[in-house]
Each structure stands twice: as structure tokens, then as C-alpha cells.
Amino acid sequence: MNRRADINPVTVSVEQLQGWLNCLCPEMGIELAGAVALPCPLPHREKWLQWVADGRHGDLEYLIRESENRADPNRKNPWARSVLVMAHRYTAGWPKLDPDPSAGADAPLDSPWTNRVSRYARGLDYHDVLLKAMRRVLRRLSEKIPGLEAFASTDTGPYLEREYAWLAGLGFLGHNNCLIHEKLGSGLFLGVALSNLVVDGLPAAGIPSVEPLFGLTPRRRRPPQTAPVDLCGSCTRCLDACPTAALDPVKGLDAHR
Ligand code: B12
Ligand code: SF4
Predict the structure, then answer these.
(1) Which of 186, 179, 25 is nearest to 94 (CA)?
(2) Ligand 1 centroid to 85 CA: how many Å?
(3) Distance CA 199, CA 20 (A)
(4) What's the distance, Cα to Cα, between the start and end of the chain in Å?
(5) pLDDT per residue as tens digits for the range 31-69
(6) What is the Cα–Cα distance from 126 to 124, expressed in whole angstroms?
(7) Which spans in 9-156 are helix H?
(8) Strands 197-200 and 10-13
(9) What is the model's pTM?
(10) What DSSP designation does 175 have?
């Protein structure tokens, strides 16, 4: 894959991309995948800028260095035509091992280690696992799509990954601030790849897909077929359980706490 300057768009249909993702993702351990057309004004752009203005990023200075670029990847990458989004579940098998999942960092040292270590940190480092899996999928995709250019990142890229995952139909945004798939939960790592793929048949920019292009587990059936915005309803269990009261479903998480 060449490096960026002269990248030209390549067009595929949404059905083609769906067929390839359905074939490749299960092989690579990816559980959900979808795509978002670019350029795309982020529906929650103002919320992101307000979060930064409110200082809710705490001391995570790297987040604000390029806040406008984070809200619009085309500013730095005018060639990009879509964001491919993939997710890998990290909670499979864990609940059985959690004697007291609410104990957290205050759990006595002689209690089981699973009381003290967040589930996301217990397995292999997802920065390696998911990134490698995505790169494998992209390598195989580029054999099928001559001219494909796609640059994968998980966590570390300047992208609002949850917003793209929501737009790609992978789930909804919960009160816990995480992307939640109705059946798989919120224990999902997300990865995105900026690509030159024009995917014919995706929803218009800024409109969320109702389903991902690939999902081993389907989302909950919803008549009418619209993407849900908030399926938490009146539930506040995560807000009540958060030991530092850092969660706010309206303003977002306060990273100071
Ligand atoms: C900085 C960061 C943190 C910080 C701040 C967290 C935060 N909430 O912002 C800290 C260190 C606290 C943190 C903790 C965790 N993190 Co973190 N973190 C990030 C990082 C690098 C940037 C997040 C960011 O930009 N925050 C700023 C806020 C404003 O952005 P946002 O929450 O994404 O909000 C956007 C959308 O939610 C949307 N939006 C806002 N409101 C609404 C409302 C509706 C209705 C809709 C549809 C959309 C929407 O608009 C916002 C702006 O576009 C991302 C990776 C990435 N590049 O995106 C991982 C990421 C968010 N983290 C992740 C994880 C797994 C965690 C932890 C679970 C780890 C743990 N300790 O157990 C916790 C969960 C904390 C939480 N409940 O949010 C995953 C989340 C996966 C998921 N299922 O959502 C990510 C995506 C990493 C990854 N690649 O998998 N994290
Ligand atoms: S409000 Fe309830 S359903 Fe929503 S994320 Fe929190 S615990 Fe889960």
C-alpha cells in the first residue's frame, strides 16, 4: 500500500463489501464490522467540542491537541472515502469468574485478582490482537479490491471511534458512555480504518446504519427499522455503581474522577 499523497477512490457495492466481510471477519476473530461514508459531519461533533471545552478530558492532553481534526478526519486526509469499523469482544467467558464484579480497586488484596482488574485488561493486549486481526482482514480485502488503501488503528488514532461504530450500525451509545451491542454488551474493543473505498449503498453521511455489515450475532429486531439512540431507558445501574461518579449520560465521562 502506498503512502497517502496520490490515493484515488475505489468503488464497491455495499453487497460486495458485506460478502467479503462475512467471509473474512469470522476467520480473524472479528465479531462485528461495518462502514461509514466520508466525508461525514459527525452528528455529535458539538458534544465532543463541549466535552473538551468543559475540561472533562482531565489530563489527557493528547485528546485536545487536534480536536477539530478528530471531529473530521477528512481535514488531514482528503483522500479518505469511508471509515471501516470492526469490533472484538473481550468479555466472553469472564462473568463466571467474577465473584464480586463491583469490588474494583478497593477490593482487599487477598480477594481474587478478578475483583480488582478491569475485564478489559485481563486478556492479551487488544492494541496487538485487534490491530493484527484488522490488518489481516484488510490485506485479504486488498486482494479482492485492487487499489484498496486502508489504514487501521485501534484506540490510538485521532478518531472518535464510538461515533463511527454507532454510525456503522454496531450498537448504541449507553449511559456508561460505551458502545453497546444489544446481545454482546459493551465489552467490545473497537478499531477503525480510514480507507479510499466508496461504498455504494451505504446510508447518507451522518445517518446511522441499522445493522452492521457483518455480525455473527444479530442486533435486537426493532420495528420500525430505525437505529436506536438510547436503549438504556430509565436504567441507571452503571451510574450508581461507578465508584467515582465519573459517568454522566448527558455530558459524558469526567476523566478527572
Ligand atoms: C480517552 C479514552 C478514555 C478515557 C476517557 C473516556 C471517555 N469516555 O472519553 C479513559 C481513560 C477514562 C477511558 C476509560 C475507558 N475506556 Co477508553 N478510550 C479513550 C479514547 C482513546 C478516546 C475517547 C474519546 O475521544 N473521548 C471523548 C468523548 C467525548 O468521546 P466519546 O465518548 O467517544 O463520545 C463520542 C460518541 O460517544 C458520541 N456521542 C456522545 N453522546 C452521544 C449520544 C448518543 C445518543 C450517540 C448516538 C452518540 C453520542 O459523540 C462523542 C463525540 O463524537 C477511545 C479510543 C478512541 N480513539 O475513540 C478509548 C475507548 C473509548 N475506550 C474504551 C474502553 C474499553 C475503555 C474502558 C472500558 C477501559 C476500562 N478501564 O475498563 C473505560 C470505559 C470508560 C467509559 N465508560 O467511557 C473503548 C470503548 C469500547 C466501547 N465498547 O465503547 C475505546 C473505543 C477503545 C477501543 N479502541 O476499543 N478511555
Ligand atoms: S444504564 Fe443500565 S443498560 Fe445502560 S449502560 Fe448503564 S447499566 Fe447498562
Answers:
(1) 186
(2) 15
(3) 13
(4) 42
(5) 999 999 999 989 999 999 999 999 999 999 988 888 888
(6) 6
(7) 14-28, 45-53, 67-71, 126-144
(8) parallel
(9) 0.93
(10) T
Instruction: Please tell me the distance from the alpha carbon of residue 250 to that of residue 1, in angstroms, as a whole number.
Output: 41
Q: Which three cell numbers stand for residue 256?
A: 478527572
| Residue 231 in contact with ligand 2 by CB distance below 6 A | no
Residue carrying C-alpha cell 474494583:
104
Return the C-alpha cell found at 239: 451510574
From the CB of 236, is ligand 2 less than 6 Å away? yes
Residue 248 burial class via C-beta count within 10 angstroms: exposed 0-12, middle 13-18, buried 19 and up: middle
- pLDDT per residue as tens digits for the range 115-135: 777 778 877 888 888 999 999
Q: Where along the chain do its domains lie?
A: 10-241
Smallest CA separation from ligand 2 atom 6, residue: 238
47 Ramachandran zone, left/alpha/beta (phi>0; psi -120 to 50): alpha
Average pLDDT over residues 133-144: 97
Round to whole Å and give the CA distance between 164 and 44. Answer: 11
Please identify, by atom number, the ligand 1 atom nearest to the C-alpha of residue 188.
83
Distance from the CA of 25 to the center of ligand 1, in angstroms?
23
Ligand closest to 247 (CA) is 1
Q: Which ligand is nearest to the CA of 52?
A: 1
Residues comprising the chain, all counted? 257
User: Residues enclosing ligand 1, CB less than 6 A?
Assistant: 42, 44, 47-48, 51, 60, 63, 118, 120, 154-155, 159-163, 166, 173, 176-179, 186, 188-190, 229-230, 252-253, 255
| Atom 69 of ligand 1, residue of closest alpha carbon | 120
C-alpha cell, 176: 456508561
The pLDDT tens digits for 148-172 are 999 999 999 999 999 999 999 999 9
